Amino acid sequence: MNKNVVIIGAGQTGRGYLNRLIALSNQKVTFIDKDEVLIHALNKQKEYTIDFGNQGRESIVIDNFDAYSIENPKAVEALADATYVFTSVGEKNLVDLIPLIKNSLKNRGDNPLYIITGENGVAPKVKLIQLTQDKRVHLSESVIFCTTITKENSLDILSEDLDFLPYDIKFLPNPLNYHGMVAEENFKDLLERKIYTYNCLSACSAYLGYVKGIENYAQAGNDIEVDKYLHKIATSINEAIAKEYYVDIQKQTEFSQMAIKKFQNKEIVDTVERNVRDVDRKLGDHERIIAPLMLLTKYHLESKELLFVAASALYYGIETDTLIKDKDIYEHYFGMLSSSWINEIKEDIKYLEKHKDSEELRLP
Ligand SMILES: NC(=O)c1ccc[n+]([C@@H]2O[C@H](COP(=O)([O-])OP(=O)(O)OC[C@H]3O[C@@H](n4cnc5c(N)ncnc54)[C@H](O)[C@@H]3O)[C@@H](O)[C@H]2O)c1
Ligand SMILES: O=P(O)(O)OC[C@@H](O)[C@@H](O)[C@H](O)[C@H](O)CO
């Protein structure tokens, strides 16, 4: 395939996952990133390796790329020549890409530009919507199921062994003929279901792991109490999600079981720290904790365990000073929930504060 491909964001997903699928299709790629140190390292080393730990898959050496910092005029040139631009910068950073992409449109011919987001979030492309004022620009989305983790002080990546990238075909004229990329017709539902199942359960392991003082992510997921919470929460949210998205309950249960299995897999050496990051985003109304709680409300269900996860996330935010400054943080983050649920969260916070110094926190 001779289409030019750019990946904005040469981090864990951009470098370790999106480009793996593209490199395995023998396609060249241009990375663009704001991190000058990372770009310098990519240009100096000219290759990096993706390892799969003990999952039984051979490592892959990746050397199919050029790499430019956003300040380099060659970044704009590469964008002007690109047919496909994948992003993997974090949903909240997408708006920052608008000036760069707009700039590249000035040097572009009539050819269409297809931007495919590779971000967690239920509608990440909305952040780029103003680009579609230019009729050449088309926005699509993909959903990232694969976990990729940077190795310390290295370009190399440790990855889950999964080459499966569903993407929204509705906004593209042709399928993406790259390894592992799968056209999805009913994409919006899949993306929401993924965030409310996988990322909800991921947040459960992560924030419960945090309050229990566990640093290794799979260890957190395998903790006896956390495991019990994960299964109870899955049972409640599955019922609501199956109803909301008209999915067979058995199919949704299997979906959540795959998520729990993945987050408990000790071969994927991930950290609680990576999974708790950006708590302000993760506590958003359409995100992994509040949206499933709202679905529970809609279908007259409840989960004390998920409320405790919400409290643990807030507690993490308070402790790390990473919440939005608001005089009423309960109203700010939980204003959509019923007052009785907000009161439960407040009680949970008191419990967490009371047991702050205990050797090992027991989940209530
Ligand atoms: N790592 C995973 O396992 C995983 C799994 C599922 C989804 N995701 C999603 O993938 C996306 C990327 O996550 P990641 O883990 O690769 O993060 P990361 O921090 O490893 O990489 C993000 C990269 O984007 C770059 N960046 C940020 N803002 C930029 C800007 N304005 N212009 C250019 N470059 C910019 C950063 O410098 C960094 O190199 C996120 O939306 C995340 O939710 C990641
Ligand atoms: O990448 P974030 O910060 O949105 O979320 C952290 C994890 O939930 C996430 O990376 C998952 O591991 C991933 O989405 C795979 O399901």
From TrEMBL:
UniProt xrefs under Pfam families: Mannitol_dh, Mannitol_dh_C
Catalytic activity: D-mannitol 1-phosphate + NAD(+) = beta-D-fructose 6-phosphate + NADH + H(+)
Molecular functions (GO terms): mannitol-1-phosphate 5-dehydrogenase activity
Domain Mannitol dehydrogenase C-terminal stretches: 191-322
Mannitol dehydrogenase N-terminal domain boundaries: 4-125
Keyword terms of this UniProt record: NAD, Oxidoreductase
EC numbers, comma separated: 1.1.1.17
The name this protein goes by in its record: Mannitol-1-phosphate 5-dehydrogenase
Species name: Breznakia pachnodae
Lineage: Bacteria, Bacillati, Bacillota, Erysipelotrichia, Erysipelotrichales
